[in-house]
UniProtKB/TrEMBL annotation:
<dbReference type="GO" id="GO:0004459">
    <property type="term" value="F:L-lactate dehydrogenase (NAD+) activity"/>
</dbReference>
<feature type="binding site">
    <location>
        <begin position="117"/>
        <end position="119"/>
    </location>
    <ligand>
        <name>NAD(+)</name>
    </ligand>
</feature>
<dbReference type="InterPro" id="IPR011275">
    <property type="entry name" value="Malate_DH_type3"/>
</dbReference>
<feature type="active site" description="Proton acceptor">
    <location>
        <position position="174"/>
    </location>
</feature>
<protein>
    <recommendedName>
        <fullName>Malate dehydrogenase</fullName>
        <ecNumber>1.1.1.37</ecNumber>
    </recommendedName>
</protein>
<dbReference type="InterPro" id="IPR036291">
    <property type="entry name" value="NAD(P)-bd_dom_sf"/>
</dbReference>
<feature type="binding site">
    <location>
        <position position="94"/>
    </location>
    <ligand>
        <name>NAD(+)</name>
    </ligand>
</feature>
<feature type="binding site">
    <location>
        <position position="150"/>
    </location>
    <ligand>
        <name>substrate</name>
    </ligand>
</feature>
<comment type="function">
    <text>Catalyzes the reversible oxidation of malate to oxaloacetate.</text>
</comment>
<keyword id="KW-0520">NAD</keyword>
<dbReference type="Pfam" id="PF02866">
    <property type="entry name" value="Ldh_1_C"/>
</dbReference>
<dbReference type="GO" id="GO:0006089">
    <property type="term" value="P:lactate metabolic process"/>
</dbReference>
<feature type="binding site">
    <location>
        <position position="32"/>
    </location>
    <ligand>
        <name>NAD(+)</name>
    </ligand>
</feature>
<keyword id="KW-0816">Tricarboxylic acid cycle</keyword>
<feature type="domain" description="Lactate/malate dehydrogenase C-terminal">
    <location>
        <begin position="146"/>
        <end position="303"/>
    </location>
</feature>
<keyword id="KW-0560">Oxidoreductase</keyword>
<feature type="domain" description="Lactate/malate dehydrogenase N-terminal">
    <location>
        <begin position="1"/>
        <end position="141"/>
    </location>
</feature>
Length: 310
């Protein structure tokens, strides 16, 4: 198993280290456009092996030929937002970066599974899909796992219970229009609505929607990376170990939920072949409407990008 991480910044480096520690691959390649950064960070990670107790080979490079025959490629290259910016403000610059990166990756790997991380997430996943020409099962975006993790952590804190017992689903686009599905959120199987008043649930939902911005406002010069990297690694683990996990990921919908030809967060079954199934669960009317509204925003942005993708 060879896993390449493109972008040796906050998310990429943190994810690469977790992948190595968990020994999810024999080789982890860390690639960045800046010379020295991926080499230095990868060597530092590799040197943590004897005390971190892992044997994964980690090496850094600026040369795409080193990524040849990757099984999984995690794309984290691009700009991160600063306070006051929306993820969509990164659109044009990151689309150009993701386009170039995807083209380069595909020159050296015939049939990788690509997990997109760069923002705005659902649109960048579309860019990766169009440029890579990979089958739709092999390209997906990381967002729902992170948004759900945030929602779960807020619920655990509110109820003073273990994070382990909380199940939650956040669907839709990775932006203010995301759709936390309260109906399918439970604590050890007990519906959340039986444990918390609606007003508190609404507050937790709102905090989840703005979870990314909350961190940006603290950090000032970048965005979250520990929870994002952990979320990427959960998806990679599901693929590497063929776990058939049901996780919310940005996937190409083709008619499900009345949405066609758009990448948006939906529950998928993740295994060794990538997306093995997209689950169409029962949603209430307001949730369906929110999901479609979220998809319309993604579609509009993708249409604006069409000239760049040709
Ligand atoms: N989907 C999600 O839930 C999340 C998405 N993100 C997004 O992930 C991206 C990365 O975030 P961070 O790691 O915090 O940013 P960062 O600025 O720490 O790292 C980005 C890295 O990309 C590299 N890069 C830029 N252009 C490149 C190119 N053409 N080829 C190769 N490498 C290139 C930079 O040199 C830098 O090292 C951002 O777009 C951010 O918005 C971040 C957190 C969560
Ligand atoms: O907020 C950002 O820009 C980064 C991100 O997507 C997140 O942390 O959810």
């Amino acid at each position: 198993m060879k896993i390449t991480v493109i972008g040796a910044g906050h998310v990429g480096a943190t994810a690469a280290h977790r992948i190595a520690e968990k020994q999810l691959a024999n080789t982890v390649v860390l690639l960045d456009i800046v010379e020295g950064i991926p080499q230095g960070k990868a060597l530092d990670m590799y040197e943590s092996g004897p005390v971190g107790l892992f044997d994964t080979m980690v090496f850094g490079t600026n040369d795409y030929s080193d990524t040849a025959d990757s099984d999984i490629v995690l794309i984290t290259a691009g700009l991160a937002r600063k306070p006051g910016m929306s993820r969509e403000d990164l659109l044009m610059k990151n689309a150009a970066i993701v386009r170039e990166v995807t083209d380069q990756v595909m020159q050296y790997s015939k049939n990788p599974i690509i997990i997109m991380v760069s923002n705005p997430l659902d649109i960048m996943t579309h860019v990766g899909y169009v440029r890579s020409k990979l089958p739709k099962e092999r390209i997906l975006g990381m967002a729902g796992v992170l948004d759900s993790a945030r929602f779960r952590s807020f619920i655990a804190k509110e109820l003073n219970v273990s994070m382990q017992d909380i199940n939650a689903f956040v669907l839709g686009g990775h932006g203010d229009s995301m759709v936390p599905v309260v109906k399918y959120t439970s604590v050890a199987g007990i519906p959340l609505t039986e444990l918390l008043p609606q007003q508190t649930i609404d507050q937790l939902v709102e905090r989840t929607r703005k979870g990314g911005a909350e961190i940006v406002n603290y950090l000032k010069d970048g965005s979250a990376y520990y929870a994002p990297a952990a979320s990427c690694v959960e998806m990679i683990d599901a693929i590497v170990n063929d776990r058939k996990r049901i996780l919310p990921c940005s996937a190409l919908l083709e008619g499900q939920y009345g949405i066609d030809n758009i990448f948006i967060g939906a529950p998928v079954k993740l295994g060794k072949n990538g997306i093995e199934q997209i689950l169409e669960i029962n949603l209430d009317k307001p949730e369906i409407e929110a999901l479609r509204k979220s998809a319309a925003i993604v579609e509009e942005n993708c249409n604006n990008l069409a000239p760049l993708l040709a």
